[in-house]
Write the structure tokens for this entry.
Amino acid sequence: MRRAISRLFPRRGFAIVACAVLLMAINGHALRVLKAQSAPTAAAVPDLAGIWDGTRRAHPTNSATIPWARTVAEGSILPDGTKADNNYVSNFPVLNERALAFQKIFDEPLSPKYDCQPSTPPALEFDPFNVEIVQWPDRVLLRYEKDDQLRTVWLDGREPTAHDYGIQGFSVGHYESNALVVVTTNYVFDITGFDDYNGIPSSQQKKVTERYWRDGDQLKATVTVEDPMFLRKPASYTMRYLPAPKGYKLQAFDCDPEAARLSVQFIPPKYK
């Protein structure tokens, strides 16, 4: 009897070990499948890297009517490089009473640009300068010629804190289909934080959503801004960048505060 039992145990032990190995293999395969389904593959990340031309070569120069326009003549060149047809709908922001009051009292010398304060989204993207995009696994860097600005878009899931307020806010992003989606919050109040040309301010409640994607050899971007303190509803525009000339390097902006403030004396005074 003991011999019979002793002969059975090795077989049973072998069977147990075999089952354990099989289960580990199955679980390991399932884990790999789940990771493959949840983690973005290299093919899912669009190639947006490079230096992009945002000058007049790519789109009209910003002004009181561009990229925000109340009316657009048929055939006019839109910010995204296409021509307006008779179905074009005005995208000028719908301002609330608070914003209209700020517009009414706005005085040009108040503009922070005369003290070299950088512009912010949604104006920064449309300023007629080049931008460089660098893509890393955990972040995307947006380096602007305008005002020598560097924005970091975090892709690692972090959230802004009460210590992350600033002129350029705090940006988080993710890849969605063939596009990079960027959401920026935690801005500080800015008297020209929405639009310098129309004297529209922005508040700490400003939220800017950007979507970047490739369209052939062009880079397209849709910029949408929300700010319940000044806007009755979100406002947006779509623009394009063209590839910068081969070998182009970003140029330093090097704003000189003394020279910038000097130009204020040539502005007709609104108040005495």
